[in-house]
Write a structure and sequence with these properties.
Layout: H1 27-44, H2 52-62, E1 77-83, H3 101-108, E2 111-113, E3 116-117, H4 122-131, H5 160-166, E4 170-176, E5 195-199, E6 210-214, E7 217-220, E8 223-224, E9 227-228, H6 238-252, E10 259-264, H7 288-313, E11 320-326, H8 350-353, E12 357-360, E13 369-371, E14 375-376, H9 380-387, H10 404-409, E15 417-423, E16 446-451, E17 454-458, E18 493-497, H11 513-527, H12 557-589
Parallel strand pairs: 1-10, 1-11, 2-13, 3-14, 4-5, 4-10
Antiparallel strand pairs: 2-12, 5-8, 6-7, 8-9, 11-12, 15-16, 16-17, 17-18
Helix pairs in contact: 6-7
Protein name: Arylsulfatase family member J
Cofactor: Ca(2+)
GO molecular function: arylsulfatase activity; metal ion binding
C-alpha cells in the first residue's frame, strides 16, 4: 500500500460528497456551507504542500463543530511541539532552501526566539523541558538514556504535566519519550500524562516502529499508554500517525476545559525516511541525505499545519498558546544544517545548542516580533505553570524562569546566564588540567556556560567545523568544503563574546583571562550543587526477546524484594532447623540407653 501523506487523516471523500453540492442540497444547507468556507478560507489557502481535498476531509469530519471558540476558562490550552534534530538553518525564515510555509507563517504572526537555547542531544533537552532543571540537578548530565540501561528521569522530580493536572488540565503526550522506561513507574502515564501514544526510545523505523540497539537487541517500539500498540502496526509513517492521534484527541476534548498537548515528533531524526510525494520539490538537491531530510521536514511542516487547523476546527485556537522548538542542532552527516553556526548536534558549539524556536498565540500582546532576549528550554516549565495559574512549591529549586512577559510584551529576560552542562564523566581533553583552569577548574572536564554576552567552553566541546550549504553538493557532506579548525595542542579553554561573534570565530580566552576566571568560578559554584551522575551499565534483562519482542519495562523491583525476602525466610528456616537438629543431637548424646550403656 502506498504511504499516505503527513496530514494524519484518512483519504478524502469523493468531490461529490462535499464540493459545491448546490443541486443536491437545500438552500439552507448551501448557506451554511458558505459560512463554513468563509470561516476557514484564510487558513486553508496557505501551505504549499497542502491539497484542498485533503483539508476538506478534515472539515467533513468536523461537521457542524466548526465555530468560533467560546471559552469558559481563563486557563489557556498549551501546545508544545518538539521537533527532533532540526538544524538552525533548516527553516524558511533562516534562509533554508527547504520549504516550510507553515513554520514561516506561524513564526511571522507570533514571536521568533532568536537567542533560544536547548541541549545538544535528545534526553537532556527533554528532561530539562519537563522538570525545569539543569542536567546536573537530575543526574542526567552524561550522554542519553540508552534502551538497555536501568535508568530514567528521577521519580522524585515533579513533572510539568503533573503540575498542570493539579490545576485541572487534561494532559496528553504524542510522540517520542526518551526519558527512560526500565520500570513501570518511569512510563509517561506515571509521570503525569493522562494518555500516551508514541515511542519510548530515541529513534526507530518510521514505518515499522522497530529499533535495534545492537545485534540481537531488537524490538517493537510503539505504545498506547502502557501497552504495545500492535493494532497500529500498519506501516503508517509516524509523522502522519502522530498527527492523526492529535486530531482525535482534539476532536474528543471539550474546548472549554484546558488541555496540555506535548507533541514530540520523531522527525527529522535519522533514519532518513519520508513518503514519496514529498521528494518532488527537492530533485535538484544532489546530496541524497539532504534530499531525504528536506522531504521529511516538508512533511513535518504540513503536519503542523494540520494540527493548527484542528485547533481552529475544534474550537481551541483562540485560547491557545503554541510553542515550537527543536530539541538540539542538526546533524550534517544526516542532512541537517546549522549554517552559519559552528558545530553540530552533540556539541556545545552554537550549532549544537542554539535552536529554532517560536511562540504563536492569539494571546500574545506583541505579535509579529523577534525576541533576542536569552531564553532556555528550562524556562518553559515555570512559564507554562504560571500561564496555567498553577503553583510552584517554594522548596523546589528550579533553573528555569517565567519568561512570558519577555515573549509577549518584549520585556527584558530575567535570565542572565545558562549552564549548558558539566559532564564529569566526559574528560577526553587530554591536555586539560587544573593549571589550565587557573587552579579554579579542571579543564579536562567537558563543560560550557553562558553569562550575559560571554560563553566559556572547557574540555573537548565536540566536532567544531562550520558546514556551509555548498558542502551538501556531493555525497557526504563533502568535508572539502568545510571550514575546518584543528584544535591546537594543549587547548582546553575557549571564550567568545556570543553577542558580537555568534559564529564563534574569534577565541578571546588569552585576551581576557579575568573573564575566563570569572566564568570558571561560576562553573565551580554550579558544580557544588550537582547530584551524582546516573549512568548505569546495561542490563541484559532489557532484551525485547525476554519481553514478547517489545521494548518496555523489565525491572521488577517488587518481585526482586519478594524473592529476597523469601530467600531470607528460607535461610532463616534452614538455620533454625540446623540449630534444632544440633540441639537434639546434644540431648541424645548426653542421655543413657535403657540397658545402662552410654549411647555414643
Amino acid at each position: 500500500m502506498a504511504p499516505r501523506g503527513c496530514e494524519g487523516h484518512p483519504p478524502p471523500p469523493s468531490p461529490q460528497a462535499w464540493v459545491c453540492p448546490g443541486k443536491m442540497l437545500a438552500m439552507g444547507a448551501l448557506a451554511g456551507f458558505w459560512i463554513l468556507c468563509l470561516l476557514t478560507y484564510g487558513y486553508l489557502s496557505w501551505g504549499q504542500g497542502l491539497e484542498e481535498e485533503e483539508e476538506g476531509a478534515l472539515l467533513a469530519q468536523a461537521g457542524d463543530r466548526l465555530e468560533p471558540s467560546t471559552t469558559s476558562t481563563s486557563q489557556p490550552h498549551l501546545i508544545f511541539i518538539l521537533a527532533d534534530d532540526q538544524g538552525f538553518r533548516d527553516v524558511g525564515y533562516h534562509g533554508s532552501e527547504i520549504k516550510t510555509p507553515t513554520l514561516d507563517k506561524l513564526a511571522a504572526e507570533g514571536v521568533k526566539l532568536e537567542n533560544y537555547y536547548v541541549q545538544p542531544i535528545c534526553t537532556p533537552s527533554r528532561s530539562q523541558f519537563i522538570t525545569g532543571k539543569y542536567q546536573i540537578h537530575t543526574g542526567l548530565q552524561h550522554s542519553i538514556i540508552r534502551p538497555t540501561q536501568p535508568n530514567c528521569l528521577p521519580l522524585d522530580n515533579a513533572t510539568l504535566p503533573q503540575k498542570l493536572k493539579e490545576v485541572g488540565y487534561s494532559t496528553h503526550m504524542v510522540g517520542k519519550w526518551h526519558l527512560g522506561f526500565y520500570r513501570k513507574e518511569c512510563m509517561p502515564t506515571k509521570r503525569g500524562f493522562d494518555t500516551f501514544f508514541g515511542s519510548l526510545l530515541g529513534s526507530g523505523d518510521y514505518y515499522t516502529h522497530y529499533k535495534c540497539d545492537s545485534p540481537g537487541m531488537c524490538g517493537y517500539d510503539l505504545y498506547e499508554n502502557d501497552n504495545a500498540a500492535w493494532d497500529y502496526d500498519n506501516g503508517i509513517y509516524s509523522t502522519q500517525m502522530y498527527t492523526q492521534r492529535v486530531q482525535q484527541i482534539l476532536a474528543s476534548h471539550n474546548p472549554t476545559k484546558p488541555i496540555f498537548l506535548y507533541i514530540a515528533y520523531q522527525a527529522v531524526h535519522s533514519p532518513l525516511q519520508a513518503p514519496g510525494r514529498y521528494f518532488e520539490h527537492y530533485r535538484s538537491i544532489i546530496n541524497i541525505n539532504r534530499r531525504r531530510y528536506a522531504a521529511m521536514l516538508s512533511c513535518l511542516d504540513e503536519a503542523i499545519n494540520n494540527v493548527t487547523l484542528a485547533l481552529k476546527t475544534y474550537g481551541f485556537y483562540n485560547n491557545s498558546i503554541i510553542i515550537y522548538s527543536s530539541d538540539n542542532g542538526g546533524q550534517p552527516t544526516a542532512g541537517g544544517s546549522n549554517w552559519p553556526l559552528r558545530g553540530s548536534k552533540g556539541t556545545y558549539w552554537e550549532g549544537g545548542i542554539r535552536a529554532v524556536g517560536f511562540v504563536h498565540s492569539p494571546l500574545l500582546k506583541n505579535k509579529g516580533t523577534v525576541c533576542k532576549e536569552l531564553v532556555h528550554i528550562t524556562d518553559w516549565y515555570p512559564t507554562l505553570i504560571s500561564l496555567a495559574e498553577g503553583q510552584i512549591d517554594e522548596d523546589i529549586q528550579l533553573d528555569g524562569y517565567d519568561i512570558w512577559e519577555t515573549i509577549s510584551e518584549g520585556l527584558r529576560s530575567p535570565r542572565v546566564d545558562i549552564l549548558h552542562n558539566i559532564d564529569p564523566i566526559y574528560t577526553k581533553a587530554k591536555n586539560g588540567s587544573w593549571a589550565a583552569g587557573y587552579g579554579i577548574w579542571n579543564t579536562a572536564i567537558q563543560s560550557a556556560i553562558r553569562v550575559q554576552h560571554w560563553k566559556l567552553l572547557t574540555g573537548n566541546p565536540g566536532y567544531s567545523d562550520w558546514v556551509p550549504p555548498q558542502s551538501f553538493s556531493n555525497l557526504g557532506p563533502n568535508r572539502w568544503h568545510n571550514e575546518r579548525i584543528t584544535l591546537s595542542t594543549g587547548k582546553s579553554v575557549w571564550l567568545f563574546n556570543i553577542t558580537a561573534d555568534p559564529y564563534e570565530r574569534v577565541d578571546l580566552s588569552n585576551r581576557y583571562p579575568g573573564i575566563v576566571k570569572k566564568l570558571l568560578r561560576r562553573l565551580s559554584q554550579f558544580n557544588k550543587t550537582a547530584v551524582p551522575v546516573r549512568y548505569p551499565p546495561k542490563d541484559p534483562r532489557s532484551n525485547p526477546r525476554l519481553n514478547g519482542g517489545v521494548w518496555g519495562p523489565w525491572y521488577k523491583e517488587e518481585t526482586k524484594k519478594k524473592k529476597s525476602n523469601k530467600n531470607r525466610a528460607e535461610k532463616k528456616q534452614k538455620k533454625s532447623k540446623i540449630k534444632k537438629k544440633r540441639k537434639q543431637q546434644k540431648t541424645v548424646s548426653g542421655s543413657t540407653c535403657h540397658s545402662g550403656v552410654t549411647c555414643g
